[in-house]
Design goal:
Blueprint lengths: L1 H11 L7 H10 L6 H11 L4 H13 L6 H10 L3 H13 L7 H4 L7
Helix pairs in contact: 1-2
């Protein structure tokens, strides 16, 4: 990821075709180690491609990836009536609030001189 980030920073900075040395310089500027194999792999995969098209393609691929949350809905719907009392119980627990200590109880106030 850091190699990709360095590549994107170089492109964002106006370098439309960053070299391995450019990426190594960016990584070195933040104290990150550079992996020559990963840099060369990335550069070979993006060579001659427009960065905006690559990002758009990546977004399309990520749109098809499940983001979780669906398993919770499925579990709740299959639980039927048994899930309802558990949900009501958790709401009761949330309503129980701990008494917050006020500034006066602590012996000072934020606005004291």
């Amino acid at each position: 990821m850091k190699v990709i980030a360095a590549y994107l920073l170089a492109v964002l900075g106006g370098n439309t075709a960053p070299t391995a040395e450019n990426l190594k310089d960016i990584l070195a500027s933040v104290g990150a180690e550079s992996d020559d194999e990963k840099i060369e792999l990335l550069l070979s995969q993006v060579k001659g491609k427009d960065i905006t098209e690559l990002i758009a393609s990546g977004r399309e691929k990520l749109a098809s990836v499940p983001a979780g949350g669906g398993a919770v809905a499925v579990a709740a719907s299959t639980g039927g009536a048994a899930a309802a009392p558990a949900a009501a119980e958790s709401k009761k627990e949330e309503k129980v609030e701990e008494k917050e200590e006020s500034d006066e109880e602590m012996g000072f106030s934020l606005f004291d001189d």
